[in-house]
Amino acid sequence: MTNGDLPADIRDGVRVYASRLESFVREVAWHAEIGSTNDTALMLAERGAPEGTVVGADLQTAGRGRRGRSWASPPGAGLYVSVVLRPDARTVPLVTIAAGVAVADAIGEAIGLAAVLKWPNDVYLGGRKVAGILAEAGSSHAGVHHIVLGVGVNVGRASYPPEVAARATSLEHEVGRPVDRGLVLGCCLAALGARYREAGSDPPHVLAAWRRYAESMLRRPVTCHVGGGTVSGIAAGIDDQGALLVRAGADTVRVVSGEVIWH
Questions:
Q1: In a 3-state reduction of DSSP, which class is residue 145?
Q2: DSSP three-state, residue 61
Q3: Average pLDDT, the chain
C-alpha cells in the first residue's frame, strides 16, 4: 500500500487503518517538502496513476485553496494530502460533498470533536476553519477522467499569517492536547474511501450526512458572487447534485460555484 519511505507517524497511522484502506488506497507517496500535493497528484494522474494514489507532504510551498487562494502550510503542523480519484459521471458532482463529510466523520472518530460543514468545502470547529478541500478535475476529449482531491487539515498549533490566524484553528487547539497526525490521516483516508463509495452507491445517504453536519450554517443570510452577478438571500440547503440553494425573495437560486459570503 505504501512506498516504504513514510515518516514513522504517518506509516503507523496508516497501518492502524489498513483493514479499512486496502480496497481504496493503492500507494502513499510522502515528501518532506513539495510545491503543491495537488499539482503532483494531477501529474501522476495524467500519467495513469490508479485511483487511490495518495500524495502527502510535511510542507507545501505553493499550497492553494479554492479560487486560487493560497493555503497556509506551516511545516509539520498539518496534513497536506491529495488523492487521485476516477469517479463515474454520476459520482462527480458529489465528490467534494462526500469529502467534506468524510473529514467531519474522521474528526469525530479520531478526535471526538463535532465538526461543522460550510458549503462547499470548509470544515469548522468552534467557529473557525480547521480543514479545507480542493477538487480539481483532469479531462480529455472523452470528458472528465480523473479528479484530484486535496485535503488540508490544521493538526498542530502553528504560527499562521495574520490574515489567517483570526479565522483558523487546529485540532490540538480545540482538543487541548497533542494529536497524532498519522492517526488523523489514516482515519481521514478510511472515511473518504467509505463516503466516496457511498456517493456512487447511495447518494441520498451522503447528502443527508452533509445536511446534518451543516445544520448550524443553514438558514443564514448569504451573498453569492456568481459569474458577473450577485445573489443575496438565505442558505436553504443543497440539492441532490450538491448545489447550494439560496432563497432570494420568492425565488430559489441554485449556486453551483462562485464566492459565497456568510453573514
A1: strand
A2: coil
A3: 90
More confident residue, 167 or 190: 190
C-alpha closest to that of 16 among 109, 100, 98, 104: 109
For residue 12, give every residue at least 6 positions away whose Cβ sits within 8 Å of its Cβ, in sequence order, or none: 182
> Is residue 47's pLDDT more than 80?
yes
Q: Provide the percentage of residues in the chain whose pLDDT is more than 70.
A: 89
Residues with Cβ within 8 Å of residue 42, at least 6 apart in sequence: 136, 138, 148
Instruction: Give the domains, in start order, of the chain with CATH numbers.
Output: 8-213 (3.30.930.10), 218-262 (2.30.30.100)
User: How far is it, in rounded angstroms, from Cα 146 to Cα 50?
Assistant: 10
Is residue 8 packed enough to be buried (19+ CB in 10 Å), middle (13-18) or exposed (0-12)?
exposed
> Rounded to two decimals, what is the model's pTM?
0.93
